Amino acid sequence: MDTTIDQNCPKRIGIALSGGGVRGVSHLGVMQAMIDHGIKFSHISGTSAGAIAAAFIAEGYAPKEILQIIKESSLLKLLRPAFGSNGLISILHARHLISKYIPHNSFQDLKIKITVAAVDLGEARQVYFTDGELDMAILASCCLPGIFKPIIINNHMYVDGGILNNFPVEPLIGNCDLIMGSSCNHLPVVKEIKSFGELVDRAAMISVNSNLNTRKILCDIVIEPHGLGGYGIFDTDAAEEIYMIGYEEGLKTINGNQKLKDIIQAQKK
C-alpha cells in the first residue's frame, strides 16, 4: 500500500471500527479527537458497536452528541442482552431507536459512505452491507448469537459480524488513501477469573481477537486503547469513562504519528 502523503491533495481517509459491546463507545472518543483536529473521513466500516458509531457519525452527529444520545436514551439496549422465556429475544425492539435519529433509513442518504459487517448464518459467510434498509443492517451486525434471534433480511438469517471479522478493514482497501483502525478489545494479562460473566467475556474476546493481527497490518494507523481491558462488554454505566479513554488515545495517536500531522498541516493551508 502506498502511504506517501501528498500534501497538495486531500486524502481519502477510511477507518474501521471494531465490535466490543459498550467498549465500542471508545470509538466515539477516538473519532472526536480526529474531528477536533480537522481529520475528515470518506469511508467508515464497522461491525456491531462499531456499526452503530459509523452510522450515527455518517449521519452528521458529532461523536460527543452520540455519547449524549446513548446516555439519555435506551440505545444501549442494542449492546446489552435481556433474556426472554425461551432464552432468545428479538433485537427488533431497538429498531425505532435508530429510526428516531436516522429517519431516512438509507445508506445512500448518509453524509459519509459506510459499510456494515454481518454474518450470513445460513451460508456461514461474511457479508458487507452498503445499501438497503440501514436499521436492519445495523441490527444484524449487533445480533449476538445465542442471545438475540437472527435478523431476517431477504430470507437470509444474519448475526453479529464480529463472529468472522471483528475488525472490518477489507471494505476500505482500494477505496482509501490512508486506512485507520480503532480496536476496543485489547486484552490485559489476568491471573484469575472471578465470575462466570468474566469467563464468557474473556473467552469471547479471545475468539474475536484471534485474527486481529492479520487485519492490523492492513491498516496504516491502528488505535487500540489498552485501558479498556478492565471493562466488560455490557458495562453500560462506564460509557463516559470509556469515551474519554478513546479520546485520550486519539489525541496520543495524533501527537505521535507523522502521517496524521502531515494531513492536519496540509488541511490548514
Automatic annotation (TrEMBL):
Keywords in alphabetical order, please. Hydrolase, Lipid degradation, Lipid metabolism
Domain called PNPLA: residue spans: 15-173
Q: Where is this motif: DGA/G?
A: 160-162
Claim: Lipid metabolism is one of the keywords in the record: yes
Q: Which residues form the active site?
A: S48, D160
Q: Which domain of life is it from?
A: Bacteria
Q: Where is this motif: GXGXXG?
A: 19-24
Pfam families named among the record's database cross-references? Patatin (PF01734)
Motif GXSXG, residue range(s) on this chain? 46-50
Q: What is this protein called?
A: Patatin-like phospholipase family protein
Q: Which organism does this sequence originate in?
A: Mucilaginibacter dorajii
* Lineage of producing organism: Bacteria, Pseudomonadati, Bacteroidota, Sphingobacteriia, Sphingobacteriales
